Predict the 3D structure of the following.
Amino acid sequence: MENLPVHISILFILTTFVCIAIFYKATQNPKTFLFIMSGWLILQGIVSLTGFYTNTKGLPPRFVLLIVPPLAIIACLFLTFKGRRFIDNLNEKTLTLLHLVRIPVELGLYWLFVYKTIPGLMTFEGRNFDILSGITAPIIFYFGFIKKKLSNEIIITWNIICLALLLNIVINAILAAPFSFQQFAFEQPNIAIAYFPFIWLPCCIVPIVLFSHLAVIRNLWRSKTTLKFTQAATLVT
């Protein structure tokens, strides 16, 4: 990726660090998270610099080594007692503000398209509307958690919509990559994602954003259910 201006790489590196910093704040500062995440970023950075992920012809593609471990961790957090306790202690307000990182990500993707390393469909000029999540995040943060003008139902709905936008671009990005099952963008495939530091997008930023949505949806839904149960119990007594 020698033809890319250095500011694009710097943008993705800084965005990754900001994403981790905001999530770290939402977790009430457990050192374990920083230790695991630092090791994961260093490992994937070193592996990507060897050119390992540029080989896209095998089945399953090597790309799965980027996304399967984070997805497995997310599943464990939701399925285990300690994991659910960790989720219970997360700050939903901070997790909502975290989605601001999607704005620089989308700007970075657009620059990658300009330099012909990803297809146009992966930008906000194509099929990617994920930037709307970043633009609306401070609105939900302010009116939902500061002013408390928005109900849990509205905040949950916003998270579900943003989750759908995230899944949309992830699916399109995978199907536009030069894997054996590539479906479109053959003239300008998604190749940037196999190189450092853009490799950190699927192995770090996307899993954190995904987990943040799922955690907020779960916690707000539980809060809503608990409130209804308490109100019903009060009426009975």
In short: The chain has one domain: 6-236. The chain has nine helices and no strands. The radius of gyration is 19 Å. The CA atoms of residues 122 and 173 lie 6 Å apart.
